Amino acid sequence: LGPMKLEPKPPKASVSRKRRRSLKVEKVKPEELENTVSKEKTETEKTIAKMFDVLKINKKVRLENLVLNRISFAQTVENLFALSFLVKDGRVVITLDDNGSHHVSPRNAPAASLITSRKVVYSHFIFRFDFNDWK
Question: Where in the sequence does UniProt note compositional bias of the Basic and acidic residues kind (predicted)?
């Protein structure tokens, strides 16, 4: 490409231009459409609602019967995911009976004032579930 020249170059003169305001000023007000914002439920929200409806009808359900889909592992995982939201929100409780079976029961969620005052404490658990367990 050749040697570089180290001679200083004179700075370019900057030209500032003022913006002209248009003489014809129109106020544009777009027409508002009614019911433009439609909130559609996601698949997870639909699954959560279905699961809670089942729990309202059957007050005590075995965990396996509620979550397990023997045909689809993916659906089983989605059911477990939906159940985790219900447990996190305090809408269901998982109990262990004398035989070692887990049972899921619906319950009323605690009031927001009880949560903020820390009278209600959430407890967490780890649920190990993989493809081999599903088989």
Answer: 1-10, 23-40
Q: Which of 133, 121, 127, 70 is nearest to 104 (CA)?
A: 127
* Sheet containing strand 102-106, strands side by side: 61-62, 102-106, 92-96
Residue 16 maps to a domain: no
Residue 8 structure tokens: 């200083």
Three-class SS state of 31: coil
**Is 56 within the bounds of a domain?**
yes
Best CA proximity match to 120, nearest among 91, 80, 100, 78: 91
Q: Assign residue 100 the CATH number of its domain.
A: 1.10.10.580
Q: Enumerate residues 6+ apart whose C-beta is below 8 A from 121.
A: none
pLDDT in tens, 102-119: 888 888 777 777 767 777
- Give the global pTM: 0.60
